[in-house]
Amino acid sequence: MIFANVLSQLPIALPAISYKAVAPELVLFGGALLILLVSATVGKRELPGLYRAIALVAALAEGGFSGYQLYLAQGAKASLAVAGAIAYDGFSAFAGIVVAAILLLAILIGPGFIKRIAGDGPEFLVLMLISAMGATVMAQGEDLIVIFIGLEILSIALYVMVGYRIGDGLAREAAFKYFILGGFSSAIFLYGIALVYGATGTTNLAKIGAFLALNVLTHDGVLLFGLALLLLGFGFKVSAVPFHLWSPDVYQGAPTSVTGYMAAMAKVGAFAALIRVFDIAFAGQIVQWRPIVVGLAILSMVFGALFALRQRELKKILAYSSINHAGFILLGVYAGTAAAISNTLFYLIAYAVIVVGTFGLVSIVQDSIGVSEGSCSLDQLRGLARSRPALATVTAIMVLAQAGAPFTTGFLAKFSIIVSVVEIREYWVAVVAMLSAAIAVAFYLRIVLAMFRGEPEEVEGERVLAIQGAATEAPARRQALAWIGVSLSLVFTVGFGIFPQPLLDLAARAHIVG
Amino acid sequence: MGYLDWLIAVPAVGALVVPFIPVSEERRSLIRGFGLAISLVELVLAAVVGVQFNSHASGYQFVTDVHWIQSFGVSWFLGADGITLVLILLTALLFVIAMFAMKGVKDFRAYVGWMLLLEAACMGSFTSLDLFAFFVFFELTLIPSYFLIADFGMGASGKAAVKFFVYTFAGSALLLVGIVSLVFIHDSETHRLTFSLPALMDTHLSGTTQLLLFLAFTAAFAVKTPIFPFHTWSPDAYRAAPIPAVVMLAGVMAKLGSYGIIRFDLELFPSTARSLAWLMLTLAVIGILYGAVVAAGERDLGRLVAYSSLSHMGFIVLGIFAFSTEGMSGSILQMVNHGIYTAALFLLLGMIYERRGTLDMAKLGGLQKRAPIFAAVFMLVVMASVGLPGLNGFIGEFLILVGTFITHRWWAVVAVAGVVASAVYMLWAYQRVFHRSQADASPFGEIKLKEALLVAPLLALIVLLGLYPAPLLARIDPTASAVVQHVLAAKGPVSDGASLPAVVKGVK
Amino acid sequence: MGAVGFVVLFPLLGFLVLLTFGRRLGDPVAGWLGTLAVFGSFVSAIVVWLARLGNEGHPYVLRLFDWFSAGGLHVNVSFRVDGLSVAMILFVTGVATLIHLYSIGYMKGDPLYHQFFVYLNLFVFSMVVLVTANTLPLAFLGWEGVGACSYWLISFWFERPTAASAGKKAFIVNRIGDTGFLLGTFLVFEHLGSVSFSRLTAGSLNLSPDTATAIVLLFFLAAAGKSAQLPLFTWLLDAMEGPTPVSALIHAATMVTAGVYLMARLSPILALAHTADLVIAIVGVATAFVAAMAATAQTDIKKIVAYSTVSQLGYMMLGIGTGAYTAAIFLMITHAFYKALIFLGSGSVIHSLNGEQNIRRMGALKKYMPITTVTMILAWLSIAGVPPFSGFFSKGAVLENAFGDSPLLWAAGVITALLTAYYMGRLVYVVFYGTPRFEEVTHGHDPHESPSVMTIPLIVLAAAAVIGGLLNLPVSGFGFLGSWLAPVFGTAQAAYPMSAGLKDGLMATDAVVALLGVFLSWRAWGGVSENPALERKIFFNGWYIDAFYDRAFARTGTAVAEVADTVVDRQIVDGAVTGVAGVARLVGGAGRKVQSGLVRSYLLIMVGGLIVMLGYVLTVAAR
Known about the structure:
The structure holds three protein chains of three kinds.
Chain A: H1 2-9, H2 19-41, H3 48-75, E1 79-81, E2 86-88, H4 90-118, H5 123-140, H6 144-162, H7 169-200, H8 205-214, H9 221-238, H10 246-253, H11 256-281, H12 286-307, H13 314-335, H14 338-368, H15 384-387, H16 389-403, H17 409-423, H18 427-452, H19 458-471, H20 475-498, H21 501-509
Antiparallel strand pairs in A: 1-2
Chain B: H1 3-17, H2 29-52, E1 61-69, E2 74-80, H3 82-100, H4 108-127, H5 131-140, H6 142-152, H7 157-190, H8 197-200, H9 207-224, H10 233-240, H11 243-268, H12 270-275, H13 277-297, H14 301-322, H15 325-356, H16 367-370, H17 372-385, H18 392-407, H19 409-415, H20 417-434, H21 449-467, H22 470-489, H23 500-507
Antiparallel strand pairs in B: 1-2
Chain C: H1 4-25, H2 29-52, E1 60-70, E2 73-81, H3 83-106, H4 113-132, H5 136-154, H6 161-192, H7 197-203, H8 209-226, H9 234-238, H10 244-253, H11 258-265, H12 267-270, H13 274-295, H14 301-321, H15 325-352, H16 370-384, H17 390-405, H18 407-432, H19 439-442, H20 452-467, H21 480-489, H22 500-525, H23 537-540, H24 545-594, H25 599-621
Antiparallel strand pairs in C: 1-2
Helix pairs in contact in C: 1-2, 1-4, 2-3, 2-4, 3-4, 3-10, 3-15, 3-20, 4-5, 5-6, 5-10, 6-8, 8-11, 8-13, 10-15, 13-14, 13-18, 14-15, 14-17, 14-18, 15-16, 15-17, 15-20, 15-21, 16-18, 16-20, 17-18, 17-22, 18-22
């Protein structure tokens, strides 16, 4: 690190920072800055291709650093950096890889569609990179305050991205809601940090863990209240019932390609932090927080599945689907064993890829039929299999992968969570989880059915076709890139669905600093 | 790669290739030819397995065992015994016929693709000896069958397909939890994480655990088979789905349930299977009679055959839980027989539907006058299904009943009523459709050569297996006997003296 | 004796050839071919019989191949040649040949001509398998095979709803009996470890009386179905919907006697089960009486004959129940002659009257159909038991044994004998004598005698009916059938010690009763065609038994089935499933209300969730 050497020779005393540890953040942030810089220097002309290339390089570099970290973490002992505020371990490295994967797919899919709304400006990619940085900070945060900062970086960028279709009332409303509710939950989260600090005298996770291991709290009320408040904050971010209410509205209102990105990225960051905080720092309090987590998990799985049954709005259905997934992932947190943590990571990467791919496909569908990136009712999918068989088939595969179809990572993800739950002998929880998956199948199939059974209505159909004809000239390129992203996620989903061992090995390396 | 790997790989690869065959819409029959070729290759493979099979051995043959997902202790572990063998043969045969029976299909590409995928999944389910692999194949069958039901069906097939999928998936949900639980119990005992069936058979389970696991496993199989009262998806699905899909559903996929009961319930939880035999036998008998009664009241031929299947699958379950070699062999043989005559029946229903656009018996009638040969063919199949001796339905039914009689007499006595009942509803249906004078003045074409060729192999088997089932029975019997021995020899948690099974034994 | 294979093979070949080429062969070649096949079978049967002469002691078994085996159960396809089976194949194929011949004429011009012979040959095949099978399952193949053929032949004219229903009814009622066959077989297998007759004969001594009783009663259920005994006889009346040769062959001469054959075959077990024997005897004699009473009031010529058949089958069962197997078989054979004759005679009448079956529209046919008339009268005298016709000897033998068992059984039998002579006399007088009443059906043409292809069988059968008694004269040295069957029945055959005087007295009673019946019928019906006082409605309706079944089983069953389908399955069983789905949808609907879109309510719910969490922490976790 030349930069570091230069810095160290300056007369000012700076704290020793392991730049290796924060390399992912630096790369992402640097990428964002570079894009801004380029756009500022080139004047009025926009260079969308270049922006995108920079973002892609940043994402790949972030992934590369994370991969390198994972490799190192395997060899050397995982460690803390930046005065113990940043963890630098296999777990964060794996989370970094997930972030890179999401980013990669989202950059391929998203900007092309966003262009229709907001032109070729660099802002979207910048926001994407910054929010991804927030997620990596959350994954690496070893201090509650750092985690909070990561959360805010992630969230604020997302608020803006959700509101991207500013001309649309639904989108404005969604962004506003997200912002208000997010602010509320952040406040609560911060209050939770304060309570934990009050109880333990530190916000550093390692120190909290050490403190709680050495001391028996005579009054643990403050700590437990703090835990509950933290859980609300995380629960909001991962949209666990009953803190999920923002998500159907926001999913619907946000641009489709943002929805997928947001669903994946927010979950990765929040879950990574959640695991680090609860499974590591508060491992000793597991008896106290476990029932709450399992309650949230079950509520999310069951109501996520049930509430989607009567929806006719595709993106809302997918929102509930992601609530259902959140419930499953929470079960991994709930199980809390080392194996469960790597299984949870496996679920996260599988889910992230599937969900970005799915929303990418929805974007392509919306683009093809010439509607905006806003809401998409099931009726609009009617007859898709007739007019666009390939698109319909791939969408069906991704939707079924979400449902847990065999030979996809979606199945293995659910399977690994069930394994974790059974491993701690909570059979009934496993049964509830699987039954919720069975209910969920019903709404996933409704999506598939809409594409494969329904004929487009005659009058409607003509209109749709006409629009399609008009819209097919320009979007060929943006769809081509999106198709690459979607294909990557499909290959990932099915490939690792059949031969999951390499991915499982990677997840198994993701040790966490204890 | 062994024969069994090829059995799965050939249709799977075929299914993957189908979407990419560069053929224009006009020459789409080439795709059909491709599907046919693959399914014929599969049939040849199955036949080779049948010929190479050592009929004197009761263990697994053609075993492949390689690691698949080490993290979970999952292997690619395939093997075949007598039960597997006959079901493989049945599957391979029926898929060839389903490939031929493509009339009315608009989208050849999708049809062939899904069919081949379904075939691969069925083959995988029947040959997997690793519980994980079995489960994924078992689940995988749902997707192609869902598309086959929903996409090409008639009437309310979308709803029926969703009902089918969700209902069977809910059963499988419990199966998955059961499998994983069993594996971890085994893991905690032996510190060996494995999903392999033979290894898991050695797990020591407490009575309650075994009971719960048995119920979890059986939930999935009971829905699939179907066993009363978990059958209500089947009339809807059989009624609404297109004929080739029903041929597969009733002919092959229903056998996945009964196969699973034998392969997993009995092998893994023998003592619970024994102590719960009374329950399963009772459900089987209720299914036999109930299915028959409802079939008698049914006005739609498709639904009627669905209920008749419920009744016949009841016989199969009865024979399984009788725990005698006669009954077990009979059940396994009957799986094949039922597959054959039900497939033939549905093909014929398809021909009626194609000519008249309805299967409502009130709107049919007098067809024998119009198409005597068609009627004769139909009659042969009806007679096979009511178990006329000399046709294939009889031998399985007879062995099941005799096997049940010598171990669980009173259930057999009640079940015999099903023999009468099947004649009642089948002949009644035949009378309404074929006898009487013509209700409809429109013509009803005689069976065409193509159609005749389609059902001819099935008809030949109906007669052949009715008169000379020895080639199959010789392969089934050692396996059946081994399974029964395994169940009877199992020392499990003994049920307390006052329980119903003990009382029943006292009666006998 | 391997020729027994040909006995089975010929009709099978005939069936296969006719099935394949029958339509092309057409009328009348198909008929001749079918007849030839059965005749070949008959010739083979004679060969078997000749080969067997002087060699009666041991049964010969022709083993072909293993049919199926599983566990301890081994069933092979093997045929048994012993006295009983030879007697059966001789008369079955013999009568069948004649009836085939007759059918060539009778079915002339029918559009399904060839198909008729397809069924008929298949029937003969099944019947021969039934009586020669050496294992119970193989016998069951024949047993169900004849049942299926009977179903097809009764519903031969399937466009008539009554014919279709009658065929179905026959099959179903037979199936009810067949459950007895199956369960009996199972019981035999359970206790003897085998289902072959060879083993059954040898091993039956080890059976406990209770087991033997159970086995016999189960098989008797089967026999009651096939041989139309109370309470399962009603199908046989409806079976008259089939073409008349079918009634003659299947529903009089051969198939319906299968039950009697089966019981005779099981004689070693019957001998162990006295209670069951008594049940059989009582059911037999009750059937005989009930059916005879019903026969007195029928107006359909075929119905009269059908009731008569039921009645005669009752007699045979009486013989079986009293241990008089030889007598029962003897009656079976002679009955085959005269009953086939009566049916064919009736058919001849029906044929000449363009299908008319009501005796009220007949009369005075003597003048137009001399051969038919004469042969019918001979048949009447035979069935009535007038000496020296065959019925006198065969029925006499049964009644004699019945007397030995219980005089009450005998008395009931004798009363029935009186009725028999009477109702057949009524038939003969009303149809062939009196005033002609057939104008409306013949449209002014005179009835005509049937062609020779139909009358020759009548004549042959008449001869057999007259002299059939020679088969087994109650004179020592002339009891051919008895000595022929002796090795089969052996000690199972009951022997009632009786003085010669008693025997003569019984014979004399029979003769007197027969003549009395003939006389009564002449007094009542000579010249009269209608007499409501003698044709009671209850008897005309067959004691309302069928009506009762219809009400109690058929209609209730249909109603139950419809309720099961529309209510129980769709609304209760499936209702539970859709109910679960409905609840899920309901909750889903509620979800839409929760998702109001209002930030304030979202916040409220979040805070509510938080309060619950904090409440939990307070109450549970913080303990």
